[in-house]
Design goal:
Helices cover 42% and strands 12% of the residues. It has 348 residues and is of the alpha/beta class. It has two domains: 157 residues, Rossmann fold; 143 residues, Rossmann fold (3-Layer(aba) Sandwich).
């Protein structure tokens, strides 16, 4: 049974002001050959909100909620935070942990699903940071994927119900639920999961079904779409794109939609721009009533889930691993052949 002396939150990172935007985007896309004009276009999304990504404050809020949830679960661990692409950088955080005498930590990554960019790459980030720190670096165990955990699903269902309530009364009962996730290259999706079993799309479909059956007594039609594609046009990525899908729904007679960003943990930039701006504008142009459900973020149920997952790793004898639906509890440690992808990283 492992004994942990620290908790580590690992996230993507984001700019904290206008001067950070381009260096941050260069970090994200380094080695991928993204043209400068594409970066400049994405940068405008950040400048439109003052150059500050919401993700860092959402991480701070989540950390505060986790600190509050730990004592009720019998946990007493110092809490650290490190990012892949911006301060606090993961390597700096691992070095601080080593300086503080941390020997073994348990880590939550802010991604719930199997894929190279959402799981395997974070494992690589952790090992790269440990290697940079050297022999005194703590061992770091990543918490399992949590796409079907009640603490992830139930907050989404509650926010979907709340979003439905904002639609015109005459349209609510027939509203269509559109679940969204970050699009990734088709080859990456096919390589996700143990042995390349295509788990990314399967896990998203399972999570969407679990939320849908808890929303409006499961009577609303629902579909899964993708957003935030960033790859070259010649490379196949997962489809349909959310904006194209809204057009198809309108043609089929749909009058109202609730968009549920089930692929995301928090309302960061890609949720707020790609859904709250672009998808909302598309719906408005079509005449579709539109509402967007919130992500779990710092919901107390989500923070309690984190505490439960830490207890799972501790193998407390009075605990039962939790999972909804039919896919069962994901493995606590990723197999060596899990989510291998040689085509390069993508934004999670």
């Amino acid at each position: 049974m492992p004994a942990y002396d620290a908790f580590l939150l690992v996230s993507f990172g984001g700019p904290e002001g206008p001067d950070d935007v381009m260096p941050f985007l260069e970090n994200v896309t380094r080695g991928r050959g993204v043209p400068p004009e594409r970066l400049a276009g994405v940068a405008e999304h950040y400048y439109a909100v003052g150059g500050v990504s919401p993700i860092n404050q959402q991480c701070r809020d989540l950390l505060a909620a986790i600190r509050a949830a730990f004592p009720a679960s019998g946990l007493s661990l110092p809490v650290y935070w490190g990012n892949r692409n911006w301060t606090p950088y993961l390597t700096d955080t691992v070095r601080a942990m080593a300086d503080d005498g941390v020997r073994r930590a348990v880590a939550l990554v802010t991604s719930a699903y199997s894929s190279y960019s959402g799981c395997r790459q974070y494992l690589e980030d952790i090992e790269r940071a440990r290697a940079a720190v050297g022999p005194d670096a703590p061992r770091i165990d990543k918490i399992r994927r949590f796409f079907n955990h009640p603490g992830f699903i139930e907050p989404f269902a509650a926010s979907a119900r709340a979003a439905l309530a904002t639609l015109p009364a005459g349209l609510r009962d027939d509203a269509h639920l559109v679940f969204t996730a970050h699009s990734i290259p088709v080859a990456m999706a096919e390589a996700s999961g143990p042995g390349g079993t295509g788990r990314y799309a399967a896990e998203l479909t399972e999570a969407a079904a679990l939320v849908a059956e808890r929303t409006g007594d499961g009577q609303h039609p629902w579909t899964l779409a993708y957003q935030s594609r960033s790859g070259p046009p010649a490379q196949p990525w997962l489809e349909p794109d959310i904006r194209d899908h809204l057009g198809e729904l309108y043609k089929s007679g749909t009058k109202a939609v609730v968009v549920v960003p089930v692929g995301f943990v928090s309302d960061h930039m890609e949720v707020r721009h790609d859904l709250d701006v672009e998808a909302a504008e598309t719906a408005g142009a079509l005449g579709l009533a539109f509402a967007r459900a919130a992500t779990p973020g710092s919901d107390p149920r989500f923070a309690s889930m984190v505490a439960e997952l830490v207890r799972e790793r501790l193998a407390r004898p009075d605990d039962t691993d939790l999972a909804l639906g039919g896919m069962g509890v994901p493995s606590h440690d990723c197999p060596a052949d899990c989510c291998r992808y040689v085509g390069g990283a993508s934004r999670p």
